Amino acid sequence: MKVIKNERRFIFVAVLALTLFGALMVYESSSLYAYKSTLDAAFFFKKQFIFFLVGLGMFFSMLFLDLEFLRKYNKEFLVSILIILVLILFIGKRAGGARRWFHLPGFNFQPSEMLKIFFLLYCADYFSRKDNLIKNFRAGLVPLGIVLGAVCLLLILQPDLGTALFLVVWTLLCLFLYGARRKHLLFIIVLGIIAAVFLIKFYPYRSRRILAYCNPFSDPKGAGFQAVQSQIAYGEGGILGVGFGASRQKLFFLPAAHTDFIFSIIAEEFGLWGALSVLCAFFIVFHKMGNIARGEYNKFKRGILWGVVFIFSLEVVINIGVSCGLLPITGLPLPFISYGGSNLISHYILLGLFFNASRGELAHSS
Fold first, then answer.
1. Are 51 and 345 in contact (CB under 8 A)?
2. Cys-Cys link to 342, which of 3, 106, 110, 145 (CB 3.0-4.6 A)?
3. Cβ-contact 29, 265 below 8 angstroms
């Protein structure tokens, strides 16, 4: 019990530190852009800090939620977010050729971030109910596949292929954890690859992204621009970095410097050692979260715990993989560090669910 409390305390403090460091980097990487756009250099920093306070409030609210209530009505929650995803196709805010946001006063709400939460709850309940059927393709995997297919279809129509692929990979990790047969997982992977190839061919801009991923320097001013500028940031940073506040890539060279590519600015200013320090911080947090999840025997809570760990760790791997050129550009932010209200608030909700499900007095219940 005492060990779990110490682990939870460390995780909370570490996440707070990462968030505050992220807010500092948001200000550092966006001040010139913010001043040019709004005449307020701290515009994005102020909004990020407000998002942090709201997220913190949501975190503490999650601690008092009855998990049995969430389990009982998880299907209704998932259906509600799917309805919102349908609505966004018609009345959502269009930006960059996609409809992914609802425009609210002073805030853009991205429903796909909340989708991760409700899909997590649905899957945690599904795995707890059908734990003995996961090895059965027809009875265990097909119903989940139908739901996942409906979710991915709505995301692809936005279009948001990155989040759709993220949920597919996340689901595969959960199925592997729960003991699904390898041949079934391999079949799903092959099916997913075929669907991804078709979708890439269907949208020419995705083909250009893949080509730019393979060789970004073949189109350094077009599809490969972000990847090239990100790699320049890494090269400029070297081992020790150019120094805090001395980034050159934030001077309108690297698009989305305070959102999807904030890790590139970190690597440029703090160098290899600074970037590795951030990675180590994430690794330690996820390791401790995994230790807590490993000791939980309640199937529903165990699904929540591992689900949150997989969401956070997968997002870190994808974001940094994109940043350093190992993965194609997907548009996934870096958890707790990148700018974005929907993302930061949803991650604090997920963290609150993790803490709720990992309470010592609830552990080892069946």
1. yes
2. 110
3. yes
What 3-state DSSP class applies to 222?
Answer: coil
Structure tokens at 15: 């996440």
Q: Counting Cβ atoms within 10 Å, is residue 215 exposed (0-12), middle (13-18) or buried (19+)?
A: exposed
Token pair of 195 as six digits = 């669907």
Angstrom CA distances, 255 to 128, 227, 245, 264, stand at: 43, 10, 17, 11
- Print pLDDT tens along the chain (366 aa): 667 788 999 999 999 999 999 999 999 999 999 998 899 999 999 999 999 999 999 999 999 999 999 999 999 999 999 999 999 988 887 776 677 888 777 677 888 999 999 999 999 999 999 888 898 998 889 999 999 999 999 998 888 888 999 999 999 999 999 989 999 999 999 988 888 888 777 776 777 777 778 788 877 787 788 889 999 999 999 999 999 988 999 888 888 799 999 999 999 999 999 999 999 999 999 999 999 999 888 999 999 999 999 999 999 999 999 998 888 888 789 999 999 989 999 999 999 999 999 985 444 433
